[in-house]
Amino acid sequence: MAKLVLLRHGQSEWNLDNVFTGWQDPDITEQGRAEAVDSGKKMAAAGIEVDVAFTSLLRRAITTTHLALDACDRVWVPVHRHWRLNERHYGGLQGLNKKETEDKHGAKQYKEWRRSYAIAPPSVERSNPHHPANDPRYADVAPELLPGTECLKDVLERTLPYWYDAIVPELHVGKTVLVGAHGNSLRALAKHLLQISDEKIVDLEIPTGVPWLFELNDDYSVAKEGLLT
Fold first, then answer.
1. Is this prediction's pTM over 0.85?
2. What is the span of the domain harbouring residue 138?
3. CATH code: domain of residue 139
4. For the chain, N or C: smaller number of CB within 10 Å?
5. SS3 category, 224
6. pLDDT band at 129 (very low <50, low <70, confident <90, very high)
7. Number of structural domains in the chain
């Protein structure tokens, strides 16, 4: 039975400041580092021996993944980084305070932008510094693939190809896989794995720095899952 661990990065500096982060690249806080180390200790205590890890191109996920692997004495395993595991791109909301945004636009609009499955925030133009086309780490990505904004549906659609092409093959040969990523890229994977409806996915919250273990059947349906608390 294949094992998959989903791990949301530890608290970031912008989590602490209550700011929309998206594809922006703040580091994790000292609390976030402690959460990352603790997650690795929890995996070790549960007997989880990670064989391969996947993460995004954003430092909060990269750092969390490294610290977690170090804490469970698996820092030597291969780690693959890919933009398809990045956080949801929040478009014109990136860098804005969440409370101030809610006060300005109203609770209904705020909730739609932040939590709805298929409604994206306003997009940023390609000339905007917050557009990934202006970030050198995405220089090798086809420009038409780089988002100026995303809803969760968009995140699922750009995450699933990487799931099938890169992650599933490792599970197929019996490896224990760690995916260290973000609230929304992991919500997208969880939606797919658990067949969560478009309406109910709005309510799914994934805590920072807590490993979420999935035991998968041969067809990659979920046999058992739970947080390692």
1. yes
2. 2-227
3. 3.40.50.1240
4. C
5. strand
6. confident
7. 1
